[in-house]
């Protein structure tokens, strides 16, 4: 298949039918036959002249004809169409990226919620203070694909990247707003999303409150403290009990990734195993002291287990008390 083009018209034909008709009226009478041979493509005019047609152009009257194989030309045209569509989509995406601003507290869900009309890449929240002091900003992020895709800043100063939480809403996060970043009057907190514009992401339940060091402790900080309190050998009972209490709170209030919850549960099992080992060790020592008639020392070990290492509703408590009565301690 071949294609002949001039600056006003176009005509298609095949080597099988050998027909080539020029639609331009100004060169009427100069039509002929197109014949494809091994040596090339030739145009045989009605007046007997023959002209070779190739990738170069052929002048016919006031017009110029180009002959080319259709398949390569078609591929080129398809490529140009694809490039044009890509440019259009890229341009439209960049134009539709918007920023939004709200006032705190903001209890709803905000972000790139995929309404198919706009892509939100920046969220700003303003709040007013009279006295400059350290505050705490609380919020819940959702569906952040990668670490550092969402950045948080206060009054233009970047203070924290948000960790990834793909395909789920993460636990509530607390960010300390130090006094040096704040100013009397209006302050603006800003989330800037740097990931793919078409990706859905969001934040919800945003508010600012006065800073409380105990409440502001993040889940990661609590987990680190619990790990420091835990010592596998010769652990102190008080430290193990504090670690157990912190882990119970983390597991109960966890809203993050399943892998994080599994890590909490694994560490919790280690703490409970250490407490159980201490409990059995104290009971073993108490029984040895009873056999040696050292009842006062045995009482101290039994009481330590009952007061610190056993739940009030644990059936083992009744067994220990029965054991103490038989020994004459209780």
Features:
3 domains, 35% helix, single chain
Helix and strand topology:
Blueprint: E1 2-5, E2 10-13, E3 19-20, E4 32-37, E5 40-45, E6 50-53, E7 58-60, E8 63-69, H1 70-96, E9 97-103, E10 106-112, E11 119-129, E12 135-142, E13 150-154, E14 157-162, E15 173-177, E16 185-193, E17 201-210, H2 219-229, H3 237-253, H4 258-291, H5 295-308, H6 316-327
Helix pairs in contact: 2-3, 3-4, 4-5, 5-6
Strand element count: 17
What is the count of DSSP helices, taking H or I runs of 4+ residues?
6
CATH level-3 fold name of the largest domain = Jelly Rolls
Give the helix/strand class.
alpha+beta
How much of the residues is beta strand, in percent? Answer: 25-35%
CATH architecture field of the largest domain: Sandwich
For the residues shown, what is the average pLDDT? 76
How is the main sheet built? 5 strands, mixed
Number of domains: 3
The topology string of helices and strands comes to EEEEEEEEHEEEEEEEEEHHHHH
Kindly report how far apart the N and C termini lie. Answer: 108 Å
The residue ranges in which pLDDT falls below 50 over 5 or more consecutive positions are: 1-29, 91-95
Radius of gyration: 40 Å
The rough form would be described as elongated
Strand order of the largest sheet: 9-11-16-13-14
Helix content range of the residues, please? 25-40%
CATH class of the largest domain: Mainly Beta
CATH superfamily of the largest domain: Galactose-binding domain-like
